[in-house]
Design brief:
five-stranded antiparallel β-sheet, two-stranded antiparallel sheet, 32% helix, 3 helices, alpha+beta, 177 residues, single chain
């Protein structure tokens, strides 16, 4: 692995000319060039090092730290992300009507129902993570339980109409093989 240049290093790039490294991420140098101004180049780009500054370099950006922290919290905690309901359902009511007309109907705010669906989904995800991380289950048991979870998600796809963002929908087994 090549040594990463520190902020303040001077380089000569074949396209942009002479410049100074002003920021470093794990993949990019931000370089202010005399000729072209601020440009980003990949760390493995071709250039000549005129003067290398070898300070400690933090090669992880704040964005990368924040993203990884969110992923860890989501994976190992009971904290759930905010899932928006589709705009057309906001403030709506779901009515459950019995076949027997002499019995009264039950109205439920769709927001309340949606919240319960999201809680079910979050708890299934936690169960899935616990199964995958289990030291006592063998691989075949994990596969079998994972298939049941996939079928549960498939049974819940009816409720996808409530989600504002399709990326947050339930996804079950695909019929395409």
């Amino acid at each position: 692995m090549q040594k990463i240049l520190g902020i303040g290093s001077r380089i000569d790039h074949p396209t942009h000319g002479v410049g100074v490294v002003t920021n470093v991420t794990s993949e990019l140098y931000w370089v202010t060039f005399i000729k072209d101004g601020l440009e980003t180049i990949t760390i493995d780009d071709t250039f000549e090092v005129i003067d290398a500054v070898e300070d400690e370099v933090d090669t992880v950006s704040f964005y990368e730290v924040e993203k990884n922290l969110k992923d860890i919290l989501k994976r190992y905690s009971d904290i759930s992300e905010v899932i928006p309901i589709a705009d057309k359902w906001k403030g709506g009511t779901m009515t459950l009507s019995p076949k027997d007309k002499s019995l009264s109907s039950k109205d439920i705010p769709i927001d309340t129902f949606f919240h319960k669906i999201v809680m079910v989904r979050d708890r299934i995800r936690v169960m899935e993570q616990k199964i995958n991380a289990s030291k006592t289950l063998d691989d075949q048991d994990k596969i079998d339980l994972q298939q049941y979870i996939t079928r549960i998600y498939g049974s819940l796809t009816t409720f996808n109409v409530l989600f504002k963002n399709a990326s947050q929908n339930f996804k079950g087994e695909s019929s395409k093989k």
